[in-house]
């Protein structure tokens, strides 16, 4: 589906596909990022009509002071998450950038395509309930405010409605992606975007 000549109300030019890996999450909290941080981001600017990538960014992030102190108090802090994504504290200390650098890179990419006034709509798997709280928290810790819209496009919900899948592994496998070993934020953002594109292609064909 190409860009329509007469854009409908509420339409957008770009969507921001995102995925994060973190030190963990606070289960049962209104804000799952409380006491935790993102340790990597996969960010893709995509054309909203074709859902094809326009520009992408991958960032790995050092632990902040809060995470370091949490590990000092509890040697198990972040260990379960490390088993999922493989990004250990020692690896990130050597290879990651600071939270401030990561926030600036993401904000600069957003400003490039949305500017300071257009609200950003995001896409991803559990994007609104998981990734967005971590992104907002990271940006605000370094004093950056980005205007995000109230609408977000969740492939978890789309997969459940379209195919009856309950998690990313099942949806991505159904779409045709190979099983993952360690989770990677950019790969997961790509698979979420590709799944959305596949669902749209299927629906376009069905509505033909």
Description:
The protein is an alpha/beta fold and 208 residues long. The chain has one domain (14-207): Ribonuclease H-like superfamily/Ribonuclease H (Nucleotidyltransferase, domain 5), CATH 3.30.420.10. The chain has helices at residues 65-73, 79-85, 89-95, 99-114, 127-141, 155-163, 168-175, 185-207, and strands spanning 14-22, 38-47, 53-60, 120-124, 148-154. Strands 3-2-1-4-5 form a five-stranded mixed sheet, sandwiched between helices. Strand 2 and strand 3 form a beta hairpin. It is globular. 34% of the residues are buried.
Give short descriptive properties of this protein:
globular, five-stranded mixed sheet, alpha/beta, 208 residues, 8 helices, 19% strand, Nucleotidyltransferase, domain 5
In short:
Helices cover 45% and strands 19% of the residues. The protein is of the alpha/beta class and 208 residues long.
